């Protein structure tokens, strides 16, 4: 039977198991929206901005591990997705972004709402397609999902000309992809795995440095087994939060610019650094030549291009993290009492330099995070924006499970967290979802309050309101002699009123003794979002802080 | 160090854009670039000359491989490859200089392919360095226009990987 390209697209999405898409209509996707009208198997969510759609699809992907899907019209609709695509690309999140394109006879003529979206997204996608005929749609969708979700995941853009959506053809969904240029290596070279096991056996002070790759490959259990077997500490990157339970005594929490002092000291002291699905980002390493100066390096990564990109690696293993850790675990003999001297040293650092903050009469932002951890008993999905609040959330919430931390690590996108929390709540309807925001960031996609209210999503929006673009202010304080250029937000609007105008519940909390009660009250609200506007200590800094260009042990601790 | 990289890519729209974009985005310098069809209709070969140390070269090759439409990538060893660059050089010439130019061209195995009243066009296909030598020697006559293709290369012997 002949069906239209738009019908073929929706049928293809169903074949891929898609249950939800986030999209915004417009001229060049009208045929797709017509098919979606009355569609039962796929739920369509209409955020209030295409940036919101992409971040929502991304948040959905992060908490479920499935491919996030969004739709946008050509031209401005498509260009509004760019920040969302770049965010997903930097953090290796599987997404398929479907954009409408002007009809093929109009392409290349500066037609109304024409933008060269495959050209624009070329550096920020794992791959992209311009589809000019209906017949290509099933194959391209099959390939797009395959590419997005396998190997090192990433976003794939499928730009479909309007006439390709309209034309009819005999639909058949392929059961295989034929991509001769794309064959991710899953199994690590056994010789390399053996070489790694040998280095590990010889090491006196090994340190596991785990990144987002552990989450992406679903290897948290294998990582935990690895660490416990070795009886050696684990530090995670911002993207790796949740890969290893922070309640475990082997946990060193986050390393890097705002990492814990004990994690950073451990990096500088270890004699073997085992990088697992981590990419030696500059926010992690600080001054590169001084990073882990005493250590040999093992790196496990599915992306060969990550191996040795920034740091020389002694034993590289290209392969899937989960599979490789399984093989490595099998090679490590069970032995009691490993690395006791090393763990003792770490314990000393933990006691001497714990994560801390000084109390005063104001609400401390760190305290709010601690209370969120307490009232949720650590069982929550934490979505953040970018800034100080993000770092405090990373530091003071104790992450114990993968896919519970949703934050823009690589691109550092303000405005990401709230729409991402919407996608997260759709993906995990039974979980408690928090959006931890700054007063700057929340205003970047505040329109999504409408989406959360309409769909009765019980998201807890916590604004750590310091009336500043806090993180930038902190840099200005420490590096630019307190010249607070364009970072003062003292003319902020009343966020409580804004939330209420959208139909959301809202509270303002100015007294530190009321923090916990407010959070408990928020937890009781189940029929829609609630915004909690905490007036926090305005000039609080995120510490530790490794000033840019310095070595990790040169951090400012208090 | 200069390297000649040969990438076998699928003949699909956007491939060249992706490859060139990769180089500019990651700050690799392209000295020359040549694209053309191969013995198989569905693939093309992109020959790129780049400057960089071994680490840079390794990254370039890995990054190229990451592109879905890139099938194979080779770093062509200089002494085991035949390398050529084609140049067309329009040189000022008159009664007096024409012979001298012709002789010079001949020593380089170059041909004069067009003679006009005040110019001649020389066609030469040689290793890049020799093309440059000829170019230098022709400068004293006055080079009016010059076009070069960028290097293409193929590996010697039975190996068909470049
Ligand atoms: C889209 C975007 N624009 C600018 C920045 C630069 N930036 C990083 S943190 C920050 C301040 C964030 O302020 P706020 O959301 O109030 O959070 P706070 O740091 O105060 O917790 C800015 C402007 C960014 N990361 N993203």
Description:
Chain A: It catalyses: 2 pyruvate + H(+) = (2S)-2-acetolactate + CO2. Chain A: One of its GO terms (molecular function) is acetolactate synthase activity. Chain A: Pfam families: TPP_enzyme_C, TPP_enzyme_M, TPP_enzyme_N. Chain A: Belongs to the TPP enzyme family. The complex is a heterodimer of chains A (558) and B (162). Chain A has 558 residues and is an alpha/beta fold. Chain A has 22 helices and 20 strands. Chain A is globular, with a radius of gyration of 24 Å. Chain B is of the alpha+beta class. Chain B is 30% helix and 42% strand. In chain B, the strands form two sheets. In chain B, strands 5, 6, 7, 8 and 9 form a five-stranded antiparallel β-sheet that branches. The chains are: A alpha/beta (558), B alpha+beta (162). The interface between A and B is medium-sized, with 19 and 20 residues. Bound molecules: thiamine diphosphate. Thiamine diphosphate is lined by residues 385-389, 412-415, 438-441, 464, 466, 468-472 of chain A.
The CATH homologous superfamily of the largest domain in chain B is named ACT domain
Low-confidence stretches of chain B: none
Q: Could you say what the CATH architecture of the largest domain in chain B is?
A: 2-Layer Sandwich
Helical content band of chain A: 25-40%
As an assembly, this protein is heterodimer
Gyration radius of chain A, in Å? 24 Å
The dominant shape of chain A is globular
CATH class of the largest domain in chain A: Alpha Beta
Query: What spatial order of strands do you see in the largest sheet of chain A?
Result: 3-2-4-5-7-6
What top-tier CATH class of the largest domain in chain B fits best? Alpha Beta
**Within the CATH hierarchy, at the fold level, what is the topology of the largest domain in chain B?**
Alpha-Beta Plaits
- The coarse silhouette of chain B is elongated
Which spans of chain A of ≥5 residues are poorly predicted at pLDDT below 50? none
What is the mean predicted local confidence, pLDDT of chain B? 93
How many domains of chain A? The number is 3
Total of helices of chain A: 22
- Bound ions, cofactors and other small molecules, one mention each: thiamine diphosphate
Strand tally of chain A is: 20
Largest sheet of chain A: 6 strands, parallel
Distance between the termini of chain A: 70 Å
Cofactor (chain A): thiamine diphosphate; Mg(2+)
Pfam families (chain A): TPP_enzyme_C, TPP_enzyme_M, TPP_enzyme_N
GO molecular function (chain A): acetolactate synthase activity; flavin adenine dinucleotide binding; magnesium ion binding; thiamine pyrophosphate binding
Catalytic activity (chain A): 2 pyruvate + H(+) = (2S)-2-acetolactate + CO2
């Amino acid at each position: 039977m002949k069906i239209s390209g738009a019908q073929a697209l929706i049928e293809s999405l169903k074949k891929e198991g898609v249950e939800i898409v986030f999209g915004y209509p417009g001229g060049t996707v009208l045929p797709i929206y017509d098919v979606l009208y009355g569609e039962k198997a796929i739920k369509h969510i209409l955020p209030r901005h295409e940036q919101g759609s992409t971040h929502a699809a991304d948040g959905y992907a992060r908490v479920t591990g499935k491919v996030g899907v969004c739709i946008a019209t050509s031209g401005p609709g498509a260009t509004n997705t760019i920040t969302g695509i770049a965010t997903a690309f930097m953090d290796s999140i599987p997404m398929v972004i479907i954009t409408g394109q002007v009809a093929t006879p109009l392409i290349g003529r500066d037609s109304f709402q024409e933008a060269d979206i495959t050209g624009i997204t070329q550096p920020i996608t794992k791959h992209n397609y311009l589809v000019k005929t209906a017949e290509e749609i099933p194959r391209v969708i099959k390939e797009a999902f395959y590419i997005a979700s396998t190997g090192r995941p990433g976003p794939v853009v499928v730009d479909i000309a309007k006439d390709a959506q309209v034309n009819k053809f005999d639909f058949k969904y392929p059961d295989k992809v034929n991509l001769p240029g794309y064959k991710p290596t899953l199994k690590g070279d056994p010789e390399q795995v053996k070489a790694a096991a040998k280095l590990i056996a010889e090491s006196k002070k090994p340190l596991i440095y785990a990144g987002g790759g552990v989450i992406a490959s679903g290897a948290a259990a294998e990582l935990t087994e690895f660490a416990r077997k070795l009886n050696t500490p684990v530090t995670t990157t911002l993207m790796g939060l949740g890969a290893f339970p922070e309640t475990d005594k082997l946990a060193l929490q986050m390393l890097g610019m705002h990492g814990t002092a004990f994690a950073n000291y451990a990096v500088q002291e270890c004699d073997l650094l085992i990088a697992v699905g981590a990419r030696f980002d500059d926010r992690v390493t600080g001054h590169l030549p001084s990073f882990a100066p005493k250590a040999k390096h093992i790196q496990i990564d599915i992306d060969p291009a990550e191996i040795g990109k920034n740091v020389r690696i002694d034993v590289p293993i290209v392969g899937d993290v989960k599979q490789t850790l399984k093989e490595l675990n099998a090679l490590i003999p069970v032995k009691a009492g490993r690395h006791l001297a090393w763990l003792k040293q770490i314990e000393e650092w933990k006691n001497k330099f714990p994560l801390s903050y000084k109390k005063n009469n104001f609400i401390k932002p760190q305290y709010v995070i601690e209370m969120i951890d307490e009232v949720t008993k650590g069982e929550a999905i934490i979505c953040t924006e970018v800034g100080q609040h993000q770092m405090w959330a990373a530091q003071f919430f104790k992450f114990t499970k993968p896919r519970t931390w949703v934050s823009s690590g690589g691109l550092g996108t303000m405005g990401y967290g709230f729409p991402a929390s919407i996608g997260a709540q759709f993906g995990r309807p039974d979980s408690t979802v928090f959006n931890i925001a700054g007063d700057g960031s929340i205003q970047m996609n505040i329109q999504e309050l409408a989406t959360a209210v309409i769909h009765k999503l019980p998201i807890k929006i916590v604004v750590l309101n310091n009336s500043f673009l806090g993180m930038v202010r902190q840099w200005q304080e420490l590096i630019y002699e307190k010249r607070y250029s364009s970072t003062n937000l003292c003319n902020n609007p009343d966020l409580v009123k804004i939330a209420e105008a959208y139909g959301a519940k809202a509270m303002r909390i100015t007294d530190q003794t009321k923090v916990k009660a407010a959070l408990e009250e928020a937890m009781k609200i189940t029929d829609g979002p609630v915004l909690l506007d905490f007036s926090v200590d305005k000039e609080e800094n995120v510490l530790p802080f490794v000033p840019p260009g310095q070595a990790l042990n040169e951090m400012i601790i208090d | 160090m200069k390297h000649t990289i040969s990438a076998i890519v699928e003949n699909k729209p956007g491939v060249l854009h992706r490859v060139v974009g990769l180089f500019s985005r990651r700050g690799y310098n392209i000295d020359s670039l040549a694209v053309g069809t191969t013995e198989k209709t569905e693939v093309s070969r992109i020959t790129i000359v780049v400057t960089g140390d071994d680490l840079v070269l390794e990254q370039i090759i890995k990054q190229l491989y990451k592109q879905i439409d890139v099938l194979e990538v080779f770093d062509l060893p200089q002494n085991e490859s035949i390398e050529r660059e084609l140049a067309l050089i329009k040189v000022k010439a008159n009664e007096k200089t024409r012979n001298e130019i012709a002789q010079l061209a001949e020593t380089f195995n170059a041909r004069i392919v067009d003679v006009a009243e005040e110019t001649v066009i020389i066609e030469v296909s040689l290793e890049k360095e020799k093309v440059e030598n000829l170019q230098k020697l022709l400068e004293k006559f006055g080079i009016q226009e010059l076009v070069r293709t960028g290097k293409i290369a193929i590996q010697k012997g039975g190996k068909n990987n470049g």
